[in-house]
Amino acid sequence: MKKFGARGGFTLVELLVVIAIIGVLVGLLLPAVQAAREAARRMSCSNNFKQLGLGVHNYHSAYNQLPTQKSGTGLPVGGTTWDVSSATTNCEELSALVGLLPFVEAQALWEQISNPNAPNKDGSAATRPAMGPTPDNGTGNANYGPWNTELPFLRCPSDPGLGLPSAGRTNYAVCLGDSIVSSTDGPTTHQLNKKNSNSGQMARANCRGVFVPRQKAKFRDILDGLANTVMMGEIVTDLGDRDIRTNPRSAGVTSGLAADPSICGSATFVDSTRPQFWATGASLINSGSIGRGYRWADGNPIYSGMMTISPPNKAVCVADEGMYDGSALMATASADKRYALVPSGSRHQGGCHVLMGDGAVKFITDSIEAGNQSSPMVAHIHNNNSGLAAGSQSPYGLWGKLGTKASKEVISEEF
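Given the sequence above, the corresponding structure tokens read:
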């Protein structure tokens, strides 16, 4: 008679113990996997910036100047102001990223933009001007193909923003210095007239960054040294929520915001339980396609500019008024064309990347020394200094010094 031995196997208790051990191991492994993925995304983001830096230097070698922030074709026939949407010209509202395209391996897109009749984003044919219409959501302009093209080298993999209501997004913006005044118009009037002496004086005093709206800029202008000056910075694109970094708040008159930039992120307007979001009582300007980083081709600060006033990942605000037109205050047609306080930022942990003038990419922490955040900025309005006098040292510490190109500040700290 055959004898059968007891069959080996797991008891229920042993099986539960094994499952528990596997669960613990998976729990320990997942954060490491996530950290590794973020490290890879951060490196990819840094590589994008290096590519842009090479493009800027190659552009300067070719044309002996930097690509102009807010360039392009002039006013439409019969037009009276640059801030009105136009289908026949771009009103000199194009960002420096447009001119940079042939130098960052985007020649095909540049050919579409620089020649007439570029295709619509829905594939239909259209009669378009060379260099495109204004890069906004005006009648017919929202369908212009090139302005809606997502460019991989302008996107940080850590930023999940995608799709409507934005056009083509950008996570990289040019440095406009440490003052909000003249940041949308530079040395021009509302009619793009560059012969107005008041506008010119304002721009010379207020536009202290590497890029000056509607004005040529060269490396020779960076007297503080290329290695000591921020040329571009990383920004966060809007996700349609109330994020203080991406959904701009309307923060009062220009002179008030220039006198005390700390009012932008005042605790009165920030959600006390979620300090990265606006409270319900804050007046926000987002509507339709207005949002931080929503249009890579648009030269207005909300979309493609950053400043070294507030440290990285702080609140974004716009003034309630329009532009100072040399001698008078001009209302703007849309809130996204006003002077704005636009810090850099990212979805990386603890800070963001910046591109220095020499092409080096640095990671700036949120805790960088940023001086007195309640100090007035340089604000030469009309013929008067409404803030600090022209040529003053930046009051915003090491961060402010890095954003000015010719204020003769000594960078003596590590960053």
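The longest strand covers residues 351-356. Try to locate this feature in the token string yourself.
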